[in-house]
Design brief:
Elements lengths: L2 H12 L6 E4 L8 E7 L2 E7 L7 H13 L7 E5 L4 E4 L7 H6 L4 H18 L15 H8 L1 H11 L5 H12 L2 H5 L3 E4 L8 E3 L9 E3 L6 E4 L1 H8 L8 H13 L6 H28 L10 H11 L6 H10 L2 H6 L13
Antiparallel strand pairs: 1-2, 2-3, 3-5, 4-5, 6-9, 7-8
Length: 344
């Protein structure tokens, strides 16, 4: 066995799971892996990460924070953070994605997901003791991350690096809208809040019936970001009428919130998120040899282009029209030339 195998075997033996059966679970774009351990009717998940400071340590802290708010993050059964190992509660296999694929009513599941966000935004106090240790997603950090488009997508699409002027123009365009968008309200921000990372937990009341996963990259940020992530999913089409109803459902829970300002904030945050995802999916293909993410690019471009039509994003839209016109957006990965009409 390798040293890593020995470490895992010792960890499991120390906590009574050394002789359990093992079933690896499908992974995502990260280097983490999950293994379901089972014996008789009992099961538990092993989380194994080569990056404990990035994954395991924040996962433990945020799981405990969420559970302290009455929300359903997996319980931490055993931990060896320095080794990148956790044993966590097994929520089963009922992700919202799987449930909808089996015929569950999307409206019920999306409403539950929004209810969990409402509960989080009502209960979380940004001034609580843990908050200073969380990354703060302010305008500067969002803009720094969204510039990945200039670093990755522009060179691949145009066959040359973005010029200094193009980069400066793009930064100025984002700075013209992002500060106002992130200033509307702050809460704990999951950052990857979508149906693959949500599970229905039967028998739990209210918002706690929504199991939360993959939150180790959470931080402090604008309240609209996770709602946009849910309703404008990079991997799944969400019907427009359902998305509109869920946005209204969220707003109804916060009657003092300026609705026009919140919708404007969501438009900007959506453009930020979709722009970064376009670049991330391209990088996963170009750098990491993960072409499976390319199939989502037409959808993400459609979502981004819809957001760019908002009047608040006029300067950003002008940059895209000048620097990455339709053909440049599409030809990089043999995408349909008219991305706005393509299906992901």
């Amino acid at each position: 066995m390798t040293t890593r195998d020995d470490t895992i075997a010792g960890f499991l033996a120390d906590h009574g799971w050394g002789d359990a059966g093992r079933t690896p679970l499908a992974g995502d774009a990260s280097a983490r892996r999950y293994v379901r351990l089972h014996r008789g009717t009992e099961s538990i998940l092993l989380m194994d990460s080569p990056n404990p400071a990035e994954d395991v340590i924040p996962f433990v802290a945020i799981a405990r924070l969420l559970r302290g708010l009455g929300l359903s993050a997996p319980g931490i059964v055993a931990e060896r953070p320095g080794a990148g190992l956790l044993l966590i509660e097994d929520f089963g296999d009922s992700t919202f994605t799987r449930l909808m694929d089996r015929g569950a009513d999307p409206a019920d599941l999306y409403r539950l997901a929004v209810d969990a966000l409402i509960a989080l935004h009502r209960r979380f106090d940004p001034a609580r003791a843990l908050s200073p240790a969380l990354p703060r997603y302010d305008a500067a950090l969002f803009i720094e991350q969204v510039m990945l488009l200039a670093d990755v997508y522009v060179p691949a699409a145009l066959g040359r690096d973005a010029t200094a002027e193009e980069r400066a123009d793009l930064e100025r365009a984002w700075w013209s809208v992002v500060p106002e968008a992130v200033g509307l309200g702050t809460s704990l921000m999951h950052r990857d809040y979508h149906v693959d990372n949500l599970m229905r937990l039967d028998g739990r009341p209210g918002a706690s019936a929504c199991g939360l996963l993959d939150f180790q990259n959470a931080g402090l940020g604008p309240i609209g970001y996770d709602l946009v992530s849910l309703l404008e999913d990079a991997r799944r089409d969400v019907p427009a009428d359902l998305a509109a109803a869920m946005l209204d459902h969220y707003l109804d829970a916060f009657p003092d919130l300026d609705r026009a300002a919140f919708r404007r904030s969501c438009a900007v945050l959506g453009a930020v998120r979709h722009t970064r995802i376009v670049a991330v999916f391209a990088r996963l293909h170009l750098r990491d040899g993960r072409p499976e993410y390319l199939r989502h690019l037409p959808r993400v471009w459609r979502l981004l282009e819809a957001k760019l039509q908002h009047p608040a994003l006029a300067h950003v839209r002008d940059w895209f029209d000048r620097t990455l016109p339709d053909r440049a957006r599409a030809t990089l990965f043999n995408l349909p030339t008219d991305i706005s009409k393509a299906h992901g």
